Amino acid sequence: QVQLQESGPGLVEPSQTLSLTCTVSGDSISSGTHYWSWIRQPAGKGLEWIGRIYTSGSTNYKPSLNSRVTISVDTSKNQFFLKLSSVTAADTAVYYCARAVTGMAVADYFDYWGQGTLVTVSS
Amino acid sequence: EIVMTQSPATLSVSPGERATLSCRASQYSSTNLAWYQQKPGQAPRLLIYGASTRATGIPARFSGSGSGTEFTLTISSLQSEDFAVYYCQQYKNWPPGAFGGGTKVEIK
Q1: From CA A45, how far away is CA B67, in angstroms rounded?
Q2: Would you say A116 and A123 are in contact if contact means Cβ atoms under 8 Å apart?
Q3: What is the mean predicted confidence (pLDDT) over B94-104?
Q4: What is the reported pLDDT for B1?
Q5: pLDDT tens digits for B29-85?
Q6: Are A6 and A22 in contact (CB under 8 A)?
Q7: Which of B44, B49, B94 minimises the CB distance to A47?
Q8: Residue-by-residue DSSP string for A58-116
């Protein structure tokens, strides 16, 4: 059974960097069979894809967030990470990590999700 | 950028009735379309991928259809646990994560 678990601070001050960890169990990031993504959801709103990483460390980011986002991976710990810099109140959201399935398509769908972690940007 | 439009925004249905949810893509998406269910306080759950293939463990009362730009999710006989928000997402075109705005299925 594949499981993902987000962890990190629930409160971040404006202009600081949001940092989250996703720990994967039941699958190996290093197997190279999937991409691994971050997705967020502001309260009462829809889902927004942030970016993804492959076991090699290759990344892709949503263009509008590209200048502020860094996703990295530690295959030895079966974890991947999100850093979002210069945060504002608009970055307040539940952040999910998810396993991405690419298959024959260009983009991904998401078959396993973490439970999500609420990050609030406030002083 | 691809825009996914879901309708209606809210669907009021009685238990045991059929629910039909629509999703329209602004660009051709072939059958690269997924549906997710999200209950309050929970993560989205994959229901359907490939427009019509049920994900592991998804009951047969959930079915998906469509191709190109028009897609439908049908719940044949609504159970109490099916009242939730449903999102569609296309994955034919870059970037990933072109989600619709969601349809809330509520008890009538």
Answers
A1: 26
A2: no
A3: 91
A4: 83
A5: 999 999 999 999 999 999 999 999 999 999 999 999 999 999 999 999 999 999 999
A6: yes
A7: B44
A8: -EEE-GGGTTTEEEEEETTTTEEEEEE-S--GGG-EEEEEEEEE-TTSSS-EEEEE---
> In this complex, which of B43, B55, B102 lies closest to A46 when CB atoms are compared?
B102
Q: What is the distance, to the nearest Å, from the Cα of residue A64 to the centroid of all Cα atoms in its chain?
A: 15
- CB contact under 8 Å between B99 and A63, yes or no, is no
Q: DSSP label at B64? A: E
Other Cβ atoms within 10 Å of B103 Cβ, number: 23
Distance from CA of A32 to the nearest CA of B (A): 18
A108 class by beta-carbon count within 10 Å (0-12 exposed, 13-18 middle, 19+ buried): buried
The confidence score (pLDDT) of residue B94 equals 84
d(CA A55, CA A35): 7
B97:A62 CB<8 A: yes
Q: Mean pLDDT, consecutive 10-residue segments, chain A of 123 residues?
A: 97 98 96 93 95 93 95 97 98 97 83 98 96
Chain A residues close to B96, C-beta within 8 Å: 37, 49, 52, 60, 100, 107-108
A39/B97 touch (CB, cutoff 8 Å), yes or no: yes
B44, B92, B102 member nearest A106 (Cβ):
B92
What pLDDT shows up at residue A5?
A: 98
Residues in A touching B94 (Cβ below 8 Å): 106-107
